[in-house]
Amino acid sequence: MKDFRIDREPRGSVQLIRLSGSLDMYSFPRLEEQLNTIFQEKQYYVVLDCRDLDYIGSAGLGALIGFAKQAREHNGDVRLLNVPDRIYKIIELLGFTKVLQVHNTEEDAVASFQAR
Amino acid sequence: MDETPKGISVGSVGNRVYVRVVGRGTFQNSQPLRKFALEKIDQGQEEFIVDLGQCQGMDSTFLGVLAGIGLRLRQTGRASTVHVINISPRNLELLQTLGLDRLFAINSDTSQLPAEPDCRKLADTDLTQVTHPLDKDETTDLMIEAHDNLVRADERNASRFKELARFLRDAVERRRKNGDGEK
Known about the structure:
Oligomer: heterodimer
Order of helices and strands of chain A: EEHEHEHEH
Number of helices of chain A: 4
Shape of chain B: globular
Largest sheet of chain B: 6 strands, mixed
CATH topology of chain A: Transcription Regulator spoIIAA
Radius of gyration of chain B: 16 Å
Structural class of chain A: alpha/beta
Mean pLDDT of chain B: 88
Largest interface: A-B, 21 and 30 residues
CATH superfamily of chain A: STAS domain
CATH class of chain B: Alpha Beta
Mean pLDDT of chain A: 92
Number of strands of chain B: 6
Low-confidence stretches of chain A: none
Strand order of the largest sheet of chain B: 5-4-3-2-1-6
Strand content of chain B: 15-25%
């Protein structure tokens, strides 16, 4: 099992967060801390790059909806990028893709905020 | 390299049920365990021994299913319990965070426990070899029940899972409005 990693790479006003490893109940507090820090900086355009994510738990998905709601209250959003097929199938099945935008390229994800 | 096949294996001897989790326990493989456990409790079996020695991690739904087993055993009024054995520090921390260490007996000393009976693997619990696709409505219902169990076990979990619970209940509401759902 890979260690969970978070790397923040701002793209202008969009905060790109690269995630790798397993996003489970054990690792989620680290992402929570990162997102809280970003919101405290009044940055509300967030893209989570999931390319190297090998697992995401149910509670983590639920919490992401909460963060997306917080961001939307400030005219921002939390969006997903490069979601691996095996994870996408699950989040689509459960309906999470109806409330969390998913993008396939970094350009699209970043541009989706600039088009607002 | 550990070659033990992943999945959830079960066996029973006398009034004891043995459950061994290899790999992850998640909402994707919780349903077979839930069905098996409820059947065993209805048959009068009183003690569950859950071996997490090879469990790489558990999500909240899986933990909620385990909590449901503990709560159901408690309801029987018999001196029933869930013993968790061989737990890693990381998984123990998860149980403690959710208050489940007060519902389960965490056994670091397994010398008093009976030997493991012959076990069989429950179908569709190896996440790398699932043969049936998950059913959306069944999975949503399972997740709601599991998270309700976590709140029943420790009310502090209500705020922890409120967004997920709201999302899942909205999904059920949409299903009701749309008749058979959105499959």
